[in-house]
Amino acid sequence: MKTTQQILDSIDSRLVELNREIATLDAARSALGQDGQSKPAPRPRASAPTQRRKPARRRARAKASRPADVVPAGRLEVLLSENGGLTTSTLAERTNGSRDQVLTLLRELEAAGKIRRTGQRRGTRWHAITDEDRIRERAAELASRRRRSA
Description:
- This protein is mainly alpha-helical.
- It has a domain at 70-150: Arc Repressor Mutant, subunit A.
- It is built from 5 helices and 2 strands.
- The chain has helices at 4-32, 73-82, 88-95, 99-111, 131-149; strands at residues 115-118, 125-128.
- A two-stranded antiparallel sheet has the order 1-2.
- A hairpin with a 6-residue loop joins strand 1 (115-118) and strand 2.
- The longest helix has 29 residues, at 4-32.
- The radius of gyration is 23 Å and the shape is extended.
- The two termini are 37 Å apart.
- The relative contact order is 0.08.
C-alpha cells in the first residue's frame, strides 16, 4: 500500500508531466495558426525550364488513411504496465496514434527512465520499468560494489 504522501507525490509528478504536454500542444496549435489550419507554403517560382521527372513509384501496399489521435505519454505508460513487451506499431494501433508520434514519446519516456526497450529493429519491445526492476538493479549495483571492495 502506498502512503498518502507517496500518492500526493505521484499526483504532483503526473501534473508536472501533463502541464509539459499541454505546453507542447499549445505550441503546436500556435504553429498551425489560430483557425487550426496550417498555412500553405508559397510555391517556388520557376526561373528556368524544368525537366520532367518520371512519376514516383507507388508503394505496393497502400496504407489505410485514418486520422491519428494525439497520444498522451501517460496512456503509453498505462498500456505498457498492463501488457509487458509491446511493439511501437501495436502501441500506435491501440492508442489510434501515429507510429512516429508514439515512437517519439517512447524515446522520451526511455530517456526519463520510465520505460526500457529490448530487442533490435523489428524485434524491439517496450516495457514499463517497475519498482521491482529498480530494486533489482540497485541490489545488483550494491553487490558489485561489495565484490570490488572485498
